[in-house]
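Lab notebook, bench 4. Still working through the backlog of constructs that have no structural model yet. Next entry is a single chain of 191 residues. Request: give me the structure tokens for it.
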Amino acid sequence: MPAGFPDFRLGSVLATSFTATLTERCGDAVERIPTPQRLVDWLTVNGLAVDSCTTAQHELARELRESIHAAVTAAAIRDALPTSAVQIINDRSMQGMAASVLTPEGNRQWRLGSASRVEDALGVIAADAIGIIAGERDGRLALCASPTCRAAFFDTSQSRTRKWCDMNTCGNRQKKARFNASQRNNTRPAK
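Model written out:
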């Protein structure tokens, strides 16, 4: 990854990994795709390589990201899906040209249209979001328990009780805070 940018948070679910390009939404937000080239980098890392990205396409991507976040957040708390978010997700899904292909290893891989346009990649991400919001995949939508993060994630753990979007960041931070608080309480003199 180029110096000067925060690392990407990569997961096994494309749509929620995409929403994780903006983290710490309820604290000091961290934008992980601040430039069109950085979006190209993220798409490439996620198997959706495109040739280039314009400022307008970058804005479309960020609009899709926020729409997916709004919709999966609503779904996670069993609230009504925001109409505008649903419309944007549907629009991006319909505008993309991509095909699902089977690899020799038996895995699914996406092939974008011949021009490798950003809109094609966004269509794949939107289709993935539709699948998880519609309940077509085995798992549960949840929100990170970190009060500063509140990222939406797709819990595929066996018990479906995962609390953190990422144990290495939010989970460890919360565990460290609890540990430090208990240490402070244990070092206070008895009254």
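Notes after review: The first helix runs from residue 14 to 19. The two ends are 53 Å apart (CA to CA). Flag for follow-up if needed.
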